[in-house]
Model the fold of this input.
Amino acid sequence: MSGMQANSLSGPKGGVTGDLVHVIHPAEIPGALVKPGAEPILKATSIQKYFGSNHVLKGCSMTVFPGETITILGRSGSGKSTFLRCLNFLEEPSAGVVEIHDKRVISNPLAPRTKMVKEDIRQLRLRAGMVFQEFNLFPHLSVIRNLIEAPVHVKHMPVAQATEVAESYLEKVGLIDKRNEFPARLSGGQRQRVAIARALTMQPDVMLFDEPTSALDPSLVGEVLKVMESLAHEGRTMIVVTHEMSFAKEAADRVYYMDEGEFVEIGPPDQVLGNPHDERTRKFLSRFLNV
Done:
């Protein structure tokens, strides 16, 4: 294991890992928009994931401060999306601990999910909004109805309040004029911007993006990245799995390079993208950048 993985702690397969101590990696320095003295808003500690005998995540740890944009890079199959999905228990880790804001969940997949555990996971998901590769919009609902569905039915927000919040985020992504359209009448880029607005309407502590431009026609990628860069520059806390090197260079406070289920290099974009220390990072980036 490389020195860049010093904050990963090994945990037993499928074991209870509540005694793990989270260690902040030396490269996890708070970004420029983080307020002095701020505590981490997200801590993932020694996340392990097995699919059968396939050890997909091998003790991945991450610290995120409020206002930071984090990007995760790596080859297909390296574990990036699995790690992201473990942060809100869309995939339950085989071992490890996830803490977002004031909610801490210990993975114990061998034990039945009690009512209390289910509520803890629900609260964790409320704190972590997710934007997927595919847009996952409800085709039978208008744009505005797509946005207010979860706030009204999950957070029990009054319809008028949810609509006001939703319209503010449609303005932010440049689609207020599409509030009454249906998804089928929108371009792929517009649908992904609606998906971003939908996640924002839940007002999460952290936004999780799983390769949000990978399903788009290249001509539509720019409009989505522009919205994401705007969110990054205004201090929205985001973790982004991406192959968009321009976004990582422009918007990220910190880059994590993943290889075979481990974070093998962590650092600011200038260092990881411009002068990577690990040979695996250099080999990967040579396809995109002159390193």
